[in-house]
Amino acid sequence: MKFKRVVVTGLGTINPIGNNIKEYWSNLEQGVSGSELITSFDTTKFKTKFACQVKNFDALQHFDRKELRKFDPYCQYAMVSAHEAVLDSGLDLEKIDHDAAGVIWASGIGGIQTFVEEMRGYFAGDGTPRFSPFFIPRMIADIAAGHISMRYSFRGPNYATVSACASSNHALIDAMNLIRMGKANIFITGGSEAAINEAGMGGFNSMQAISTNNDNYKTASRPFDATRDGFVMGEGAGALILEEYEHAKARGAKIYAEIVGGGMTADAYHFTAPHPEGLGAKNVMINALKDANLKPEDVDYINVHGTATPIGDGAELKAVTAVFGEHAYKLNISSTKSMAGHLLGATAAIEAIACIFAMNTGIIPPTINHTTPDPEIDSKLNLTLNKAQKREVNVALSNTFGFGGHNSSVIFKKFTE
Q: Which pLDDT tens digit goes with each residue over 173-193?
């Protein structure tokens, strides 16, 4: 079977360093930190008092009050980023085949803010169940995909992918494959998350997964640094319009990049820790390269998972050197989580957009907040430390890995006819 080509024709985002694509790309280039003290709840008794929050977002600028009752913040972010991507794509919604247009949307957790609010109300009462009729529909992780499809009348494949922090890469890969096989012409795909609340922060604190560097919160997300102590929670969304190439060409669409491959593996090792030798990470990059019909030396840039956990960063870089050999030292590598934080199920979507930024601008976004080399990390690797670097990028690979041992990689290629 000959696969159809799949291209990216629209982008949208709302995240801690940009409420739209233009802001996000500008702040990626400048190396801006999105970390700040948490303002949405009282953190006095919490070990971590900071996160990478979405800033200056007024939901009433996007939705009316009646509509908002239906949307958890994770869904609000999904709808806002998807709308920007649809507008950016230039799709004429009157002319497309709505039965061949789908939505695959990711979230690692879904509507956890709704869950917190509803349970707080219940336990504050006398035990009488007085739950909102919107409680369950607001909370479930697939509802964002449903709402996006309803907004644009996309009647093709519609579902959610849930694989923790690998979720939105899995959404991208599924959308790519369905278009390749001729099951649809267009997908709105990506992911969203909004877990900066008492449950989200408290839960990750209890696992010792997130940074507690409250005294240096602006620089606490420090991948590859010897002083790293965990990831910094982020929130927001990223959306991409994937389109069958001939369909995009026929309507004269601008094309940002071609998505040419994806890999999916499992560590089958531990429910939260990565395989210490990066076995699953190694295999997922090999699979992605095979799927894209590319050699390791074809890759110019890797946006690594790079969460700033003591174990994870080193294991991933071991995998990179195992897969790429001597070419690993010719790559640019960076972790944009150093700027935007870790958006959990949405993180792969905004990092895919960062890869497309690098490809379209010739600028590699940096890994910021690095001051102390880790002797366990190969010093010959170009981790794009602290400042953006200029480089032509023809092929970019993006890794994301999730609790449960889920690994995913996607590969983008500079578009040529």
A: 999 999 999 999 999 999 999
